[in-house]
Amino acid sequence: MRAYGWAGPDTPGFGICIFPARKSKCREGTAMPVGIFRVCLVVITAIINRPFLFPKENGTVPENTEEIIQKMKEREESLRLQKLRLEQEIAGQEAAQQALEKAAKVVEEIKEEKVPWDMWTALSMVIFLLIELWRQDFQEGNWQDTGAEEDDMAVLGKAFKGVAFPDKATLASFYEKRILGTTGDMARMREMVEGFADDLLEALRSVCNRDADMEVEDCMGVGSMYENWRVRKPFVCDLIVPFAPPEPYCFRSQIWCSGDSFAPDEQGYGTIKVCRADEDVTGCICDKTKLGEDMLCLLHSQGNTSRPSSEMEDLLCFKNTQYLDADQVMKWFQIAVTKAWNRISHKYEFDLSFSLLDSPGALKIKFRSGKSVAFNLTPVVQYENSDVYFISHFPRNELVAELPSSTRWFLTFAVYERRFIQLISKTLPAGACHVSCLQILSFLHGKQCSLTGPSGLTNYHLKTVMLHLLQARPSQDWAPEKLEARLQDMLKFLEKCLHEKKLYHFFVGNEKVPAELGFPITFQRAEPLNLFRPFVLHRDVYRKTVDTFHEMLRNTSALINEYTVHIPLAHTNGIHKEAI
């Protein structure tokens, strides 16, 4: 019996027949059935594991093929979008990386070029500033002329090169002959003018209506004639006359440093409002806003909410306002003075007339002998309870033609200035030279202006310089033998102020004012008031002033020697001590 051995497909040696003998016959006899079996096995396996390889009519293939294909397309599209997004993210990362690398490179380049860049920036700024300064200094004139001006304005030492300043003996002789010899009759003139002014004001009160006109007080003397340093003729006495409104009215003032309604060029000015004495200081809102036809103020009746314009004009106010008008005051005062003179003219053997029509009280006495005496009688308004006054018309520089509104009143501190000079004089050595310095400087400047025309400097500027130096220097520095040194100090200080275009008012903003004067604290705490501010706004006036000042320096010796008697030095010193 022959045994046959067979193995399954998973058995090692699958498809291999093992016959002990007759191997060739076995292969030939079984080759066909084995092949058929293998084909069938492959078909069965394919049907079980890969049903989609067969047509649709096959029962094992699902009928929702289109839905599956659609999902596969959607999946394919989703994968495609994810691929694009990933590509964009990769591109963005690469761009960011490149930007970082570029920024690092730029930073490195900046670090390498930092020093040269700073140098060029600084150089560019310097060039720009130089061009701007050149434009401001030379745009209004020839650059060659301005260059000469800048050379002159450097320091006082350069301005004095080639100028021989008078020595002590020459100054002493000049002061004794020219100053003292011409100012000896000032006291008699002051006495005569004051007596006549008192009589004139008394007559003015008698012709005025006490119930409707302004009330005039006694006059006060101020200025160079009463501070004993007036040197130039004609001698003019300055008198101020305070006045007040009739009852029940009063004046309420506002100064530039206590309100925001004043422009920069109105520093030193204020306004005066005419109010009823029982009126609220702040005023009712009905006087500031339009209530309308259907509204009524419960505090004020309709008859009291506004005053007739004729009434306010009688109170010398600007048209349709409550603010005191300087022009109206000038007209009123001139008419009142004319009436007063007509009443007392029979008592005097001289004539009285107005020397300037644009000044309220510029008066001139004309004697039958031909001589004349001029004086100013100017109405003023007292500021609160102090000796600061609002002055209706203040002498202004001829070169600066700008005038403020007639409701803007200039403040004068002349009374305090006179008191300060009297107070400080008590602490100075006997025969101190402060007044002598001011007199000499005023004389030199006046003479130079008569030769070359008016200047932006005034005698008030010169007096302000003296006041600052009186406060700054020790008392012993004003001994009479130091006249030459102190005069040069005043010239140096004045040139420094001209160079900087800054000369501050002595009282406004000065917290070192002696307490004995009783000066209002409001002005001490105010911002300093620059008296040279017009030079900043008017460059032509500034240049004219600087030229006149330097010309005065060069002509100092000639002007002084013209009025000097040359005498021995020892004798001159003795005369000077006696004169002072």
Automatic annotation (TrEMBL):
Give coiled-coil spans as residue ranges. 69-113
Ranges of residues in domain Mab-21-like HhH/H2TH-like: 435-508
Its subcellular locations are: Cell membrane; Nucleus outer membrane
One GO term of the cellular component aspect? nuclear outer membrane
PANTHER family linked to this entry: CELL FATE DETERMINING PROTEIN MAB21-RELATED, INOSITOL 1,4,5-TRISPHOSPHATE RECEPTOR-INTERACTING PROTEIN
Question: What does the similarity note say?
Answer: Belongs to the ITPRIP family.
- What exactly does this protein do? Enhances Ca(2+)-mediated inhibition of inositol 1,4,5-triphosphate receptor (ITPR) Ca(2+) release.
Q: What is this protein called?
A: Inositol 1,4,5-trisphosphate receptor-interacting protein
